[in-house]
Amino acid sequence: MFIIHKPGQGYWTRLMSLIGGGALAAAGAMWAWAKLGAVDIPTRLWTFAIANTSGDLPGAGQAVTILGRDGSSVGTGIVEQASATHVALTGVTADSVRDLTGLSTQAGFQAIVNGVPIEDKLFQAEYLQGGVAALILLIGGAFVYYFCYANRKSSDFLIATEGEMKKVNWSTRREIFGSTWVVIVISLIIAGVLFFADFLFSQFFSLIKVIEMA
Q: How far, in Å, CA of 120 to CA of 91, rounded?
């Protein structure tokens, strides 16, 4: 059950503070989502399409050597599953699959790798992004609610602020509209005067050959 200190008082200051704090929490969650999208999630499994195989297929748990373009070893992996067309390996680094050409084992298995290996991450980056964003929203929302409604000192401050705001002699709607139109008209007059002054000076300086008009 939510605790509200002095319910019904300080409605607008509390509500606006809640909305502002929620917006900050949402902005933080969006920032974290964007930043975590660049995180490199560890790879659980690499699957290689193979052809021109020779020797017996390696079994699960058997070590496999990854061969580079010159036929030398560029890495190793452990077989998770193998078939006549594909071999899935764990414990493989990303660097070792960049220039690979084949696979081999000490038991005599040889195969050529076709195409680009398929990378299987430990989990999707969206899970990390969503989890952190949800945590930020949860913690941020709880803190903002506590500040606006549950904490006695901050709640009393917001309530007192709204009380002082009600004492202010606010302008009427008619006065606000009138002042706004005065500002707009004066701005247009100033813009017109500056435009004609600029035009006259440019013509004058062009006439006396100080500047050249296009």
A: 12
The H or E element containing residue 111 is: strand 110-121
Question: What is the DSSP secondary-structure string of 39-51?
Answer: --PPEEEEEEEEE
Q: How far apart are CA 183 and CA 176, in angstroms?
A: 11
Question: Mean of the pLDDT values across residues 11-40?
Answer: 95
Least confident of 18-22, 91-95, 118-122, 162-166: 91-95
Residues 32 and 69 occupy one common structural domain: no
Asked if 201 and 154 sit in the same domain, the reply is: no
pLDDT digit string, tens, across residues 168-177: 877 888 999 9
Which CATH number is 68's domain given? 2.40.30
Count up the domains in the chain and report the number. 3
Flag whether the pTM goes above 0.70. no
Distances (CA, A) of 164 to 4, 40, 59, 147: 21, 53, 79, 20
